[in-house]
Design goal:
Blueprint lengths: L2 H32 L4 H10 L5 H21 L4 E3 L2 H12 L1 H11 L6 E3 L11 H13 L12 H8 L8 E2 L14 E2 H4 L34 E3 L1
Parallel strand pairs: 3-4
Antiparallel strand pairs: 1-5, 2-5
Helix pairs in contact: 1-3, 2-4, 3-4, 3-6
Length: 228
């Protein structure tokens, strides 16, 4: 077998593997997006947060699907959990061990462990896990992570639903007119490294619009809890 034939075989093999992986991920993401959580899980969240309406409870599980989407996209890198109420739903889902294990295998391709972590150490300092969560959540909803005009659902939901001891974020904590000024984590600064210039400028470590969304390095979680 000459070198040309060998090269062609290698290229075709690589292309086949790449297409298979993309097809598999597409199937996984479709499974996540269409997954119906057991009514008992929804009931437990309603009991834990009795002020929520049926529509609001539905929103919690929509955000949980978003989180699993993010974990799929991040592959084996840590993704922090930005929401208390969504974390509550995740906890309840895990207790249905057979369902959860099956979901992980079909939707993520591995068992997603729940790893408790610390919240952001300050309104302007985020570890890699929460940075990754922010970039992925923004990508999912087509939001610029460095100059957000709104918050992704999973970052906004605790405040939207008035969750006790929930996590609150502000798109721009430098703006005194911004909702949650001084009382919220600064979401606009999660999208860039320390040393961001002005309100939305990027440091030397931040590139283009979605630079590094799916391959950010690091494994620490910075939000409420995280999947590893």
């Amino acid at each position: 077998m000459d070198w040309f034939t060998t090269t062609i075989i290698i290229i075709v093999s690589i292309g086949t593997v790449t297409l298979y992986r993309k097809s598999r991920q597409s199937r996984q993401l479709a499974y996540i997006n269409s997954y119906q959580f057991h009514k008992s899980i929804r009931s437990k969240i309603s009991k834990k947060h009795p002020h929520l309406s049926n529509d609001q409870t539905y929103l919690v599980f929509r955000a949980l699907r978003d989180y699993f989407w993010m974990c799929n996209k991040a592959k084996r890198k840590a993704v922090a959990m930005p929401s208390q109420v969504v974390d509550d739903a995740w906890h309840e889902f895990i207790l249905f061990t057979k369902n959860y294990n099956q979901f992980c295998n079909k939707g993520i391709g591995r068992f997603l462990h729940h790893t408790p972590t610390e919240v952001m150490s300050s309104p302007l300092f985020a570890q890699e896990g929460i940075k990754r969560a922010w970039r992925l959540a923004c990508a999912n909803e087509h939001i610029n992570p460095q100059t957000p005009l709104k918050l992704p659902l999973i970052f906004a939901i605790d405040s939207m639903l008035n969750i006790e001891n929930g996590f609150t974020y502000s798109p721009n904590c430098r703006d005194k007119n911004s909702t949650g000024y001084r009382d919220s984590y600064c979401a606009g600064h999660i999208g860039c490294s320390s040393g961001c210039a002005g309100d939305s400028g990027a440091s030397d470590h931040s590139g283009g619009f979605f630079d590094g969304i799916f391959d950010s390095s690091g494994s620490d979680c910075g939000g409420g809890c995280g999947g590893d």
